[in-house]
Amino acid sequence: MAKRRKRGDGSIHLRADGRWEGRVVIGYDDKGLPVTKNVLAKTKSECVSKLNTLKDSITTHTPNQPKPGILLGDWLNLWYQSYKKSSLRPNTQMSYERRIYQHIIPALGNIQMDKLTTNDLQQFYIDLKQNGRLIRTDIYGEGLSDQTVRGVHTTLHTALDKAIAEKLIFRNPADGCRLPSTKAREMQVLTPEEIQRLLIQAKEDSYYELLLLELSTGLRRGEICALQWRDLNLRTGELRVERQVHRAKEGLLVSQPKTKASNRSIILPVPVLNVLRAYRQSIASRWMFPSPVNEDSPRDPAAVRARLQVILERAECKKVRFHDLRHTFSTAALEHGMDIKTLSTIIGHVSSSTTLNVYAHVTDEMRRTAAMKIDQGIGKAEATETPTAPRKPAPSTFQVRKGQRRKPGTGCVTQINDHLWEGRYSPIWPDGKKHARNIYARSETECETLLAEMILEMKSEIATAKEQIKTAPKAS
């Protein structure tokens, strides 16, 4: 049996006219069919030599056969829809689509890929930094952040790499670009006094349980919104984290956590567990923190973020992100002696090295404290600065910001956002438990009217229920 040639070496065969022919594929046409070249010789050895020379000339002079004239915008759309989209999570898809369809294609989409230069991309990134922001310019300024510009570059670079693999271009023009530095966003942590004020005000604004749990666990915003009561063992205090909520174009979506480490169990402190046990009595939904508009839906992470800012302002705390509450928990845990491995597991980091990188400022201080203790214990040095464990802060004297006091039995009214008001009434029913109902309106006046009507209906139902209990036959 003749020895088979390796793939890419071409083929050699004896023709009917007695000559030897060598043939090799040099590329593919627009329909995907192979394009070949051939050589002819009188002997097989001469044919092999000519075929090798042909292959060398193709490799030296035409390493690829790019297809000229393809617009960058057309390729990006094809690459995203055909190669990338199906492998991305819904919220990640939104990020890619913003980069591609709101930034890259409007600026560079009409340039042919084979004519796109590094300078084109470099100027594009400069423009993004200076005036690339499309919304909320009054808050964040005209330019995009360094992190966003780097994200745009990563998407563009990956798409152009795929174009090279498909023999659409010779080289990737994004290779030589200079990018903004990867400075981490500044971390902010609430002080113990600010934590007290935040929780005091949160009670008034019906967010106490959510924020207390956050400050006790460091959950991500999407994770805490996705908690269900079946995730919490009220007897043992074990809380399972196994899903997250995020907003997509279709609305709120519930999905599995992004990494395996994010699926985890946390043991809650007893005081926090007691608060949640009492809070459970007032919630009829399967969600631990249901939407105020629809009890069968989890709370919108965006609404939680907006509400936190209102509570922080009322509590006279500095303005922080919800994610900074996660940092606050982690910093406090380390300062009170929790080891890095345990903290990494609780907050759902993939590895302890990630936790060490994020909280290096805390661990540096812990190492200095440890060195002082060793020096005092072994070196018998005089203690110029006595390291002590963080002390429990004195009770805050902060007075909650209240609206006009309402009379008992009239329920409460809360402004959810600029266009939505919530009315709530939580009477004790004949079974001895509180059963709350909510109504919603577009103005405070309308909300007060609907709330009064609902209270009358509920009082009538309670009276009927009490009468039924009185007249019900007693069991013998």
What would you say about this model in short?
This protein has helices at residues 44-61, 72-84, 90-108, 118-131, 137-140, 146-165, 192-204, 208-217, 221-225, 270-280, 301-314, 322-335, 340-347, 352-358, 360-377, 444-471; strands at residues 11-14, 20-28, 34-41, 238-241, 244-248, 251-255, 264-267, 412-417, 420-425, 437-441.
Pick out its properties.
single chain; 476 residues; alpha+beta; 3-stranded antiparallel sheet; 10 strands; 12% strand
Give an overview in words.
This protein is of the alpha+beta class and 476 residues long. The chain is 45% helix and 12% strand. It has 16 helices and 10 strands. It has helices spanning 44-61, 72-84, 90-108, 118-131, 137-140, 146-165, 192-204, 208-217, 221-225, 270-280, 301-314, 322-335, 340-347, 352-358, 360-377, 444-471; strands spanning 11-14, 20-28, 34-41, 238-241, 244-248, 251-255, 264-267, 412-417, 420-425, 437-441. Strands 1-2-3 form a 3-stranded antiparallel sheet, covered by helices on one side. Strands 8-9-10 form a 3-stranded antiparallel sheet, with helices on one face. Strand 8 and strand 9 form a beta hairpin. The longest helix has 28 residues, at 444-471. It is elongated, with a radius of gyration of 33 Å. Residues 60-65 and 383-388 have low confidence and may be disordered.
